[in-house]
Design a protein that fits this description.
CATH superfamily of one domain: Citrate Synthase, domain 1
Helix content: 55-70%
Low-confidence stretches: 1-14, 16-21, 293-306
Mean pLDDT: 87
Distance between the termini: 73 Å
Structural class: mainly alpha
CATH architecture of one domain: Orthogonal Bundle
Strand content: under 5%
Order of helices and strands: HHHHEEEHHHHHHHHHHHEEHHHHH
CATH class of one domain: Mainly Alpha
Shape: globular
Number of helices: 20
Oligomer: single chain
Largest sheet: 3 strands, antiparallel
C-alpha cells in the first residue's frame, strides 16, 4: 500500500503508530503521547509510590547530594560505565539512526530534539519540519538586538547570552497565559511554544554576540528556511567550510543533555518548577553553566596541568570524547594539536592511575572539543561555553515541556543543619 493511499484512510482506521508516522507537527505528536504517559505514571505511582529506592548517607548530604536518587528527568540518563543515553539511545546509535543533512554524515540536532521530546527516532520529513519551524521562529525582537549592540566589549559572552535570553521573556506565551489563569493541564502547550521559539532564536543571539565581539559588529545575515539549524548557525557566525558545519551538527547533538543532576539541567528544572517561563528557566541554567570550571589534574606533582580528564559520574572514556576523536581521525588526522591530544589520551590515564590521583583517569568531552574548533578557525575560547549553551537548550527544554505536562510540583527538598544531622544520626544509631 502506498503512503498516499494510507494517508487517505479514515483516521479511526489507522493505528496509533501509523498516525504518529504521518504527523510531522511535533506538537501534534506530543498531544498524542502526553495522555498515555500521564496514565502510565499515575498507575506506577499508585502501585509503587511508597517503595524505598535508596538510602541517604551523611556523606551524600555534605557532598552536594551526589548519588542521591531525587529527580525524575526523562530525556537522558548517564551511566557511569557506558556514558550518556538519549531516551535509551547511545551516541553511536544516534549517529547511525538520526537523519542527516543531504550529503552529510553527522546527525542533525533537530532529529535529536524530536527524539528527546517524543522518545521516537524521527524520519527525514519530521526533521525537515523542525528545521523549517525553527527558521520561521528565529527573528529576534528589536529590543534584544539593541541591547546586544549596546553591551560593552569586556562583558563576557556568556553574560551577554544569559541577559539576552532573559530579555526574550517579553515574548513568553506561557507567562501571558499563566497571568490570564490558563488551566494547568494546558501549561505544556505554552511551554512548548516558548521552547520552540527560544531554541529557534538562540543561534541568532549567539551569532550576534560572536560578530559583535570578534568580527567588528558585522551583520549575521538572514535565516535561510531551506537550511538546517546548524547550517544557518555557522552561516551567521561567518564560517563557510562544510566540514565545520558538520562539526557543529555533531557538537550541538552530543552536548545537548547529560541527565538531570548536572548544574545547568538541574537549575532549569528547579526554576521551571516554580512556574517560571522557559526564558527565565533557561537563562538561570546558563548562569549555572557559565560558572562550570574545567577540571585540571596535576601530573607527577609538577605545575603541568592537563585539562579535560576525570568526570563526576563517568568511570570510562566519555563517549562524547570518542565521537569527536573519530571526527578528527576522519577529517584532520595530521593536525599537530590533534596529535598532541591523541598522545595525551595514551599517556595521561596510565600516569593518573599510577599516581592514584583520580577515580576516573579517562578524558571527558572538554579534552577534545577545543582542538576541533581551533582547527576550523574558531580560536576565541571565551566563546566556547556559548556553543555549549546553544546545544544544552535541546535537552533541558525538552524536559521542561514534559515537567509541565506531567504536573511536576515545586521542587523543595528538606535541608538540615549540622546540629540537626548530628542529632538525627544519634537517634538512628541509638
Amino acid at each position: 500500500m502506498s503512503f498516499l493511499s494510507v494517508s487517505r484512510l479514515a483516521p479511526k482506521l489507522l493505528n496509533s503508530k501509523v498516525r504518529l508516522f504521518l504527523q510531522y507537527n511535533l506538537k501534534d505528536v506530543l498531544a498524542d503521547l502526553i495522555p498515555k504517559e500521564q496514565t502510565r505514571i499515575k498507575s506506577f505511582k499508585q502501585q509503587y509510590g511508597k517503595t524505598n529506592i535508596g538510602q541517604i548517607t551523611v556523606d551524600m548530604v555534605y557532598g552536594g547530594m551526589r548519588g542521591m536518587k531525587g529527580l525524575v528527568y526523562e530525556t537522558s540518563v548517564l551511566d557511569p560505565e557506558e556514558g550518556i543515553r538519549f531516551r535509551g539511545y547511545s551516541i553511536p546509535e544516534c549517529q547511525k539512526l538520526l537523519p542527516k543533512a543531504p550529503g552529510g554524515e553527522e546527525p542533525l540536532p533537530e532529529g535529536l530534539f524530536w527524539l528527546l521530546v517524543t522518545g521516537q527516532v524521527p524520519n527525514e520529513e519530521q526533521v525537515s519540519w523542525v528545521s523549517k519551524e525553527w527558521a520561521k521562529r528565529a527573528a529576534l525582537p528589536s529590543h534584544v538586538v539593541t541591547m546586544l549592540d549596546n553591551f560593552p566589549t569586556n562583558l563576557h559572552p556568556m553574560s551577554q547570552f544569559s541577559a539576552a535570553i532573559t530579555a526574550l521573556n517579553s515574548e513568553s506565551n506561557f507567562a501571558r497565559a499563566y497571568s490570564e489563569g490558563v488551566h494547568k493541564t494546558k501549561y505544556w502547550e505554552f511551554i512548548y511554544e516558548d521552547s520552540m521559539d527560544l531554541i529557534a532564536k538562540l543561534p541568532c543571539i549567539a551569532a550576534k554576540i560572536y560578530r559583535n565581539l570578534y568580527r567588528e559588529g558585522s551583520s549575521i545575515g538572514a535565516i535561510d528556511s531551506n537550511l538546517d539549524w546548524s547550517h544557518n548557525f555557522t552561516n551567521m557566525l561567518g564560517y563557510s567550510d562544510a566540514q565545520f558545519t558538520e562539526l557543529m551538527r555533531l557538537y550541538l547533538t552530543i552536548h545537548s543533555d547529560h541527565e538531570g543532576g548536572n548544574v545547568s539541567a538541574h537549575t532549569s528544572h528547579l526554576v521551571g518548577s516554580a512556574l517560571s517561563d522557559p526564558y527565565l528557566s533557561f537563562s538561570a541554567a546558563m548562569n549555572g553553566l557559565a560558572g562550570n570550571d574545567v577540571k585540571y589534574v596535576n601530573l607527577y606533582d609538577t605545575h603541568i596541568v592537563v585539562p579535560g580528564y576525570g568526570h563526576a559520574v563517568l568511570r570510562k572514556t566519555d563517549p562524547r570524547y570518542t565521537c569527536q576523536r573519530e571526527f578528527a581521525l576522519k577529517h584532520l588526522p595530521n593536525d599537530p594539536m590533534f596529535k598532541l591530544v591523541a598522545q595525551l589520551y595514551k599517556i595521561v590515564p596510565n600516569v593518573l592511575l599510577e599516581q592514584g590521583k583520580a577515580k576516573n583517569p579517562w578524558p571527558n568531552v572538554d579534552a577534545h572539543s577545543g582542538v576541533l574548533l581551533q582547527y576550523y578557525g574558531m580560536t576565541e575560547m571565551n566563546y566556547y561555553t556559548v556553543l555549549f549553551g546553544v546545544s544544552r537548550a535541546l535537552g533541558v527544554l525538552a524536559q521542561l515541556v514534559w515537567s509541565r505536562a506531567l504536573g511536576f510540583p515545586l521542587e523543595r527538598p528538606k535541608s538540615m543543619s549540622t546540629d540537626g544531622l548530628i542529632n538525627l544520626v544519634g537517634a538512628k544509631s541509638g
